[in-house]
Amino acid sequence: MQLTDAEQAALLRAVALGESVRGRTSPNPPVGAVLIDSAGALVGEGATAPAGGPHAEVAALRAAGEHARGATAVVTLEPCAHTGRTGPCTEALIQAGVAKVIYAVDDPNPEAAGGADRLREAGVTVVAATSEEVGALRPWLHAVRTGRPYVTWKYAATLDGRVAATDGTSQWITSPASRADVHELRATVDAIVVGSGTVLADDPHLTVRDADGALADHQPLRVVLDRRHRAPQDARVFDGAASTLSLDTAVPRFALKALFDRGVRHVLLEGGPTLAGAFVEDRCVDQVVAYLAPKLLGGGAHALGPAGIATLAEAVTLVVDSVDRFGEDVRIVGRPIWPEGE
């Protein structure tokens, strides 16, 4: 069914609302919802609150009040039909008298799916609008379908692929503009993962800071993979600026399962070449964000360590989603296509 201009605009607004709560809703999905009246005017909107708070549809209904009766609800994800920490959104929509529901993505969670059918049974017109992937929902959808968090591998390197010089120095390869963008990226994830080697070499803080250097209100979980218990307890990653979890494993899939069980749905991998290689070898990287500085070193550590790739035929190809400038640097965002049989 073709959407009207007002419905299409409402869907774009709902997507933006979902983007605004990335990293703050897990294990629930970051959903946006908009209510419009018969004339296409916006009467209410909302986004998913942190776990235990109202879902996007309920927030939009509260904002709309009596204007919800006869309105059209435009939502990025199929409204849920189950009772968890909160009641089912389908029942809230029905009770509010919403006449039509447009949603962008089917809910793959078997515990919550079925909302569209329940709405139709109640006489609500239901339209499945767009595609499988909508903005902020991609990591959550992946996690629900696979049982492990979506992994974004981020690294900063010179044009010849070095993340540190021969003497071990690595601060700062990229520009302040790139580093500021990294903080914005961190703000959208549930957890930041490094290995003990990175803690020993760089003593990173792994926090989200604003343009003035102050800690942001939302801080992802900091995770250290430390099978040999090498990370010192006085390392900055163990301070009180954010929660930190130390995992006694070096196996990516074990670590990711443990994080999934804790409600983590999107991981930012910021470890060094060895850990990155292990994640690539285990086919546990879903997105790559590379910041490339216009510098040449000719020596020092490479961005990616051994990854079980022996020939060019086994190389991992990336679908490039975007290429942008940050100061003098270039940021490339892409998604791996794993070789056949993987």
Features:
single chain, alpha/beta, Cytidine Deaminase, domain 2, 25% helix, 342 residues
Topology:
Elements: H1 5-20, E1 32-36, E2 42-47, H2 56-64, E3 72-77, H3 89-96, E4 100-105, H4 115-121, E5 125-128, H5 137-146, E6 150-158, H6 176-186, E7 191-195, H7 196-202, E8 221-225, E9 244-247, H8 252-261, E10 266-269, H9 273-281, E11 287-293, E12 317-326, E13 329-337
Parallel strand pairs: 3-4, 4-5, 6-10, 6-11, 7-8, 7-10, 8-9
Antiparallel strand pairs: 1-2, 1-3, 11-13, 12-13
Description of the molecule:
By secondary structure, the chain is α/β, with parallel strands linked by helices. The chain folds into 2 domains: 5-140, 3-Layer(aba) Sandwich (Cytidine Deaminase, domain 2), CATH 3.40.140; 147-337, 3-Layer(aba) Sandwich (Dihydrofolate Reductase, subunit A). Helix content is 25%, strand content 23%. The protein contains 9 helices and 13 strands. It has an 8-stranded mixed beta sheet. Helix 4 links the parallel strand 4 and strand 5. Helix 3 packs parallel to helix 4 (115-121). The radius of gyration is 22 Å and the shape is elongated. The mean pLDDT is 90.
Summarize, please.
This protein is α/β, with parallel strands linked by helices. It has helices at residues 5-20, 56-64, 89-96, 115-121, 137-146, 176-186, 196-202, 252-261, 273-281; strands spanning 32-36, 42-47, 72-77, 100-105, 125-128, 150-158, 191-195, 221-225, 244-247, 266-269, 287-293, 317-326, 329-337. It folds into two domains: 5-140, Cytidine Deaminase, domain 2; 147-337, Dihydrofolate Reductase, subunit A.
